[in-house]
Design goal:
428 residues; mainly alpha; ABC transporter involved in vitamin B12 uptake, BtuC; 2 domains; 3-stranded mixed beta sheet; two-stranded antiparallel ribbon; globular
Length: 428
């Protein structure tokens, strides 16, 4: 008689969650709700807040929305407190928790805007806010896509800041000297490739620590552009630092769609390039042989090398190629917006792009979505400053960087980077 021994059932035991982590979300929600009620609601001016959803002279207009400021703040706070209670006592999945975070943030923004615009004679134009968000986010989005390609290839690109800054400098100088916007755009993209080539040469070829190398490249570009700005641009401002800028191009029919048309389809060529870059990186990484090989060398370069993939050559190509996007993002800073170069004008947007990449979990759509969040905070602080809210201007200017710290430290959670990211590959 044979005995059949059945395997013991596998019991999955979930790791206990610390009490403070369990209550972190509900307490945070409650704080936002109390701020909505006790600060924004109680100290709101008398009157209504008016929101406009159409620009002047638009072909199709949307009626303005008038909300009682104080009452709206109270309602937003009450709904936030309800969500805090649900978050505390009702089990929720990851997706629901993220949706709840988005709703809480949205309610807080609505309350903040009502508090800011209460009693003002002019309406708050939502279209301008969204349009400014997209335009402000362009260099961050392109920088984040650059970081996604490099990280997926196994290279940490801290030098995005330098790529943006050198792209802005070269684009301004070339456009001023040649009076050709397109040539300036191409040269700005090549400047990003140049920094990428330096990063690739030292990080891949000589196995230099990639974090330290990126910081050194940023410092090098900052010093080089500052020196050339003083020596060349300042004495010859009319000929070397007075570039023209790209005009907005409105796509027929699509640009006339209410609310979304002016935001998505009435902008400069840089926004349309960003659309194409996002689609290309998303499809390329997850639907092409190049993307499969790129992800392979970022996860397990030894296995990729075993099946015949040239790990070092592909990393070189990807890092240099990704510099095109960062260089275009830098060119936007000069020939896409302000029309002049200034020292350090990238203002840390390369580092914010890295934070957006991490927050977006190393995916193109996630990175772009996070970049839009940071762009939104930048545009919002600019509009709040113009409304004359009783908040220190220095504090408002800190808003995008504070959001970056909060998001990366508290909201992003555990993110799994590519296993070989930052690890030099030395072929045996």
């Amino acid at each position: 008689m044979s005995l059949v021994v059945e395997p013991a059932p596998v019991v999955t035991v979930e790791a206990p969650v610390e009490t403070w982590r369990r209550w972190l979300g509900p307490v945070t929600f409650a704080v936002f709700g109390l701020v909505d009620i006790l600060v924004l609601g109680l100290y709101s001016h008398h009157g209504d807040a008016t929101f406009a959803f159409s620009q002047p002279f638009a072909k199709v207009t949307v009626p303005n929305l008038r909300l009682p400021a104080a009452e709206t703040c109270y309602a937003c706070g009450a709904l936030t407190l309800v969500l805090a209670a649900v978050r505390a006592f009702v089990p929720t999945g990851v997706l629901r928790r993220r949706v709840m975070i988005a709703v809480v943030v949205f309610l807080f923004i609505v309350a903040l805007l009502c508090w800011s615009d209460a009693g003002n004679g002019t309406s708050f134009n939502v279209v301008n806010l969204l349009q400014g968000t997209l335009n402000t986010s362009i260099p961050i989005m392109l920088g984040a896509l650059t970081g996604v390609i490099c990280s997926r290839s196994g290279v940490v690109n801290i030098g995005i800041e330098g790529q943006l800054l050198l792209g802005a400098f070269v684009a301004a100088m070339v456009t001023s000297g040649t009076h050709s916007l397109w040539l300036g755009l191409v040269c700005g993209a090549l400047a990003g490739c140049l920094v990428g080539a330096l990063l690739a040469a030292f990080a891949i070829g000589y196995a230099v620590d990639q974090i330290i190398l990126g910081v050194v490249l940023n410092t090098l570009v900052l010093g080089l552009t500052g020196y050339l700005y003083d020596q060349l641009m300042v004495p010859n401002a009319n000929t070397l630092n007075s570039p023209a800028t790209f005009s907005a191009y409105k796509i027929p029919l699509l640009g006339d769609i209410p609310i979304l048309g002016p935001v998505l389809f009435d902008s400069t060529i840089f926004l349309y390039i960003t659309y194409l870059a996002l689609a290309a990186v998303q499809v390329g990484l997850f639907s092409t042989r190049w993307g499969l090989r790129t992800r392979a060398i970022g996860e397990h370069p030894v296995a990729a090398d075993t099946v015949g993939i040239s790990v070092l050559a592909l990393r070189y190509r990807n890092v240099i190629m990704a510099g095109v996007l960062a260089g275009i993002g830098g060119a936007y800073l000069t020939i896409g917006s302000v029309g002049a170069f200034a020292k350090g004008m990238s203002s840390g947007e390369g580092y914010i792009a890295l934070a957006a990449m991490i927050f977006g979990r190393y995916t193109p759509f996630g990175a772009v979505g996070a970049a839009l969040l940071f762009g939104f905070t930048t545009q919002l602080q600019s509009i709040l400053s113009s409304l004359g809210v009783p908040i220190s201007s220095n504090l408002l200017l800190m808003t995008p960087y504070i959001v970056t710290i909060i998001v990366v430290a508290g909201l992003v959670g555990k993110v799994r980077a590519p296993k070989a990211e930052g690890v030099p590959y030395i072929k045996s």
